[in-house]
Write a structure and sequence with these properties.
With about 130 residues, this protein is α+β, with helices and mostly antiparallel strands. It is about 20% helix and about 35% strand. The protein has two helices and eight strands. The strands form two sheets. It has a five-stranded antiparallel sheet with strand order 7-6-5-4-8. Strands 1-2-3 form a three-stranded antiparallel sheet. The protein is elongated. It starts with 15 loop residues before the first strand and ends with a strand.
Length: about 130
């Protein structure tokens, strides 16, 4: 299309802060969204790209249902998909605790639990 001009302009977003490398030898920039998400990188561009990747992962994981299983000892196990990985929690009469966080891969939380030999998956009620 002739006569159309495209221009890229920066748009400041609220609650975004940028930290330059703080000391000599420190090579990491940090871009933070509020207090909850951040990206780090050797350049400002890399840090921004990492923050964008975290935001995309957060939107992808928000609709993934948690998965449940019973351990052989009777504990209830819950796996939740998070942007940083699959978090696994053990729930007993005494309370709950995070027992592991696993790298994100192509498996869903339900597939993570089903792959553990001493877990019996608990199917959701529909």
């Amino acid at each position: 299309m002739s006569g159309v001009r495209v221009e890229t302009v920066p748009i400041p977003l609220p609650n975004i802060s940028v930290q330059r490398p703080s000391r000599v030898g420190s090579e990491l920039w940090r871009v933070t969204l509020s207090r909850f998400m951040f990206g780090r990188g050797k350049t400002l561009k890399a840090a921004k790209a990492e923050l964008a990747r975290q935001i995309v992962l957060a939107t992808e994981t928000v609709n993934v249902e948690p998965a449940f299983a019973r351990d052989d000892d009777g504990s209830l196990i819950v796996a939740i998909d998070r942007p940083w990985g699959v978090e696994e929690y053990r729930i007993t009469d005494d309370g709950y605790k995070n027992v592991g966080t696993y790298d994100r891969d192509t498996r869903t939380p339900a597939e993570w639990l089903a792959a553990t030999p001493h877990y019996t998956p608990v199917l959701p009620r529909r």
